[in-house]
Amino acid sequence: MEKIYYKAPFGNLEILGDKSGIYTINFSDKFLNLKPKDENLTLCLDELDRYFKGKLRNFSVKLNLTGTKFEREIYQTLLKIPYGKTLSYKEVAEISGHKNAYRAVGNANAKNKIPIIVPCHRVVATNGLGGYFGGISVKKFLLNLEGAI
């Protein structure tokens, strides 16, 4: 597994992955200018650049989704939320076949190890934005970037 860093408009991202997929993206205070050796990580950096410039709407980088069966089902649902759109926690629960599990959807979102690419920022509360482990200002930034708010 390889570690690289990316300077996002709101701060640094630490990315871990290899040829089988991206495992985690962490918000980080640290930054090291490391050149990726792996093609998938190189693609990830390129796609993040294009995304933040408003030129990429769908990521193609390989992902290694982890978590419980339920969490992985939720992440697959999140990957289907179109760029610039939002769904409520309740809607994600219904679409994923877990009608009354909207609180569990929130918990799964909080455990999402690949934010931005697995777009948990596109899930909002019925009465507002809801939370975001990267901070509400980052969630607002991402939704504004996509034209969702």
UniProtKB/TrEMBL annotation:
It comes from the Bacteria. The keyword DNA damage applies. Pfam families: DNA_binding_1, Methyltransf_1N. Its EC number is 2.1.1.63. Residues 70-148 form the Methylated-DNA-[protein]-cysteine S-methyltransferase DNA binding domain. It catalyses: a 4-O-methyl-thymidine in DNA + L-cysteinyl-[protein] = a thymidine in DNA + S-methyl-L-cysteinyl-[protein]; a 6-O-methyl-2'-deoxyguanosine in DNA + L-cysteinyl-[protein] = S-methyl-L-cysteinyl-[protein] + a 2'-deoxyguanosine in DNA. GO terms for biological process: DNA repair; methylation. The keyword Magnesium does not apply. Residues 4-65 form the Methylguanine DNA methyltransferase ribonuclease-like domain. It is an enzyme of class 2 (transferase). Keywords: DNA damage, DNA repair, Methyltransferase, Transferase. One of its GO terms (molecular function) is methylated-DNA-[protein]-cysteine S-methyltransferase activity. NCBIfam families: ogt (TIGR00589). Belongs to the MGMT family. This is methylated-DNA--[protein]-cysteine S-methyltransferase.
